[in-house]
Each structure stands twice: as C-alpha cells, then as structure tokens.
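fwd from M.: "can u put these together and see what the complex looks like"

so here's what she sent:
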Amino acid sequence: EPEVTQTPSHQVTQMGQEVILRCVPISNHLYFYWYRQILGQKVEFLVSFYNNEISEKSEIFDDQFSVERPDGSNFTLKIRSTKLEDSAMYFCASSEIWTSPTGDTQYFGPGTRLTVL
Amino acid sequence: AQSVSQHNHHVILSEAASLELGCNYSYGGTVNLFWYVQYPGQHLQLLLKYFSGDPLVKGIKGFEAEFIKSKFSFNLRKPSVQWSDTAEYFCAVNAQSGGSYIPTFGRGTSLIVHP
C-alpha cells in the first residue's frame, strides 16, 4: 500500500539555524499538508498546498516558514531561523482531492521530530 | 474559528471493557468529521469518517462513531476493547472557511488497555 514518507525521522538543530523537512507524498495525490504537534499538545494545521501554491495556512505559519515542491515527488517545509518553540513533531500528509465538499481523506507520514537546542 | 474538544485525555481500560471517547466541536456550518489513531511508534491512520448520510459510522477494527448534530458531537465507541487498541486517538474536523476546508484536530486521548 502506498505511504507518505518523511525524512529525517529526527533532526536536531541549534537555535537560529535553518532546517528543511522533507516529505514524499503518495504519487497520485494532489494536495499536500504540513502539521505540527508540540509534545503533549494537539496536532495543529500549518499549511496546505495545491498546484504549486499555498491553499490555506494557519496563524502559526508565519514568515519564517515556507513550503516548496521542488520536483515531482518531494514536498518540503523550511524553517528559516529556528526557535526553541519550534521543537515539535512535524507531520506531512497528502490527499487525492480536498476542495470537494467531502474533504477527502488525508494520509499521514510518520513524522519528523525536530529538536531545537 | 472552529475548535475540537476531546474531554478524556487519558483512559485506562481492561480488555473486553467498552469504550467511548468524547469529541465535541464548535462550528455551525458544514463539517466533515474524522477519527484518527496513532499506535505507538506509528503514524496517524484513519479510523473512520463522516461526511453525510447515516450519522452512525462504522470504521475499521470494530470502531464506530455517532454524529449528533444537535450536540456538536462525534463520539467514538467500541463495545469490547483489546490490548492492541492501546494508542492515541484524535478527533478531527474539516470545517468550511470561504471556499476551502480547514482541518482542526483535538488534543488526543491516550488509551491504555490492560490485558
């Protein structure tokens, strides 16, 4: 069964450094998402992406965040200057269709645990 | 903005006990409702979803959920839990905002089932 994959599984970085989290969505999916989950807290929506542009973003997704689909398979989340509070598990997800009234099912990757020191 | 509340943060049961996990959302418009499960060391997986029609939805592994619109609730149930149901359970809502759907997750409920 096709899966969403994410690399690395764990990233440790120094405060102020840039990090890029990578995701490979399911190949025939068109919509891509990033979520984060700070330890002990709920899963929070960051951004959705379709047709090479951002569809929706939350208040969390400020100017230090960016997303990109650099080629036909990867979907990346960049954090320009990491802060301590960026430490979290970051989940990528993809779905076939999203803007339908049914809001299609999202398939999640295993997550990347980001630790900012 | 919509929000999702999961009232039980930690639930501990013995095998064969019945399970009900509460989920309430705050949004008056059209919503799509989901329950996801995250087994230890694994990624989020869809248990079941409700879009329209019969408010009683059956999912995988014997789980079901009932959408009660008047109560803004979508509680998850299982008549008899197993040790393998030990996991984190997340309720999620896709609510319409403009022309798009914004997904919102609850905080999750940690379920431990003792053999």
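replying to her w this: The mean pLDDT of chain B is 89.
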